[in-house]
Amino acid sequence: MTSWLRAQLAPDAWSWLATQRERLEGGSASGREFNLAVSLVPRRLGKADLVLDGAALAEADRARPGWDPRGWSVDQAGRLVLLLAGGGTGRVFAERLRQLLVTADIAETIAFHRGLPLYPDPELVEPRAREGVRSAMQPVFEAVAHRNPYPAEYFVEDAWNQMVVKALFIGSTLAPIQGLDRRANQALARMLCDYARERRAAGRPVSPELWRCVGPHANDAALEDLAVALDSADPAERDAAAAALATCDRPRARALLERTMAR
């Protein structure tokens, strides 16, 4: 991140960030000094979008597989530079992150959750990630759930499933969730079918995206739900249901697909 920031920031802004990072790396700064430096980042660096070309994104993925900093701002990256410099490791880092999140405003909260893939001893910050996806604020939820490899790598199945269902419940999208196909499971398929039935019973539309997680694990009840989706008035849902059926090896799924192609 430092090379990207150095290329984009004005000289005085970069000089301030580099000085703060060096001071914090020494370990002599107090907690108050650390918190003050982090809080000053937007004022010193501004809030412009972080400019990243294809080479920078490839560099990010090499540095940490799955790391996707698209959509970040310079102040978010700057906060993380200082946190990684002065946050320590292990339980010391986990506690410092917890304390920062207690008093963080929404911009800081988003930044700290976007940094999850970069933190040392990542299993120790899992409670903070769980808090992020429980947030009532969609931008905070998406800071954890979208373009972030952390949930797929560290969430247990129940936490993963709840995150996917919540994305649909709050009107977010599933496509930016990394590991969505790899982490699909039977329990999630049942939850999504239940959700789809509730939506239909209330006369509300069903997101075509949810069928992607159902097809590979469809049981008889789920296949009936997919049959209903094939008759949806929404062409996108019909297409999504057909695509989901193509991933299921059950004879009933093949029969439904053949019926669809014969129309």
From TrEMBL:
InterPro entries tied to this protein: EboA_dom
UniProt superkingdom: Bacteria
Protein's name according to its UniProt entry: HEAT repeat domain-containing protein
Biological source species: Roseicella aquatilis
